[in-house]
Structure prediction request, 79 residues.
Amino acid sequence: MEATFILGLVILVIGVLAVAFVRPKTYIARLINLEIPAWGLLLVMLAYDEALALLTFVAVTAIGTFVIVRLMEWRDASC
Prediction:
C-alpha cells in the first residue's frame, strides 16, 4: 500500500468523525469540517489516478457545500 493511500484513509476517517461529532453545533463549523474528509478522499483517489482525484474532490466539495447551504437556508426559514 502506498503512503498516500493510507494517509488519505486516516484523514477520511478523522474527517468523518469531525463532521459527525462537531463540538460547536453550528452549520459553519460543519461546513469547515466537511472539507477534512474531502481532502482525505482526494488523497485516496490520488493513489489511483490524478484526473479521478481532481474530479472527485471538486464534486464532493460542490455537493457538500450545496447541501449545507440549503440546510442553513431551510433552518433559517423555519424559525
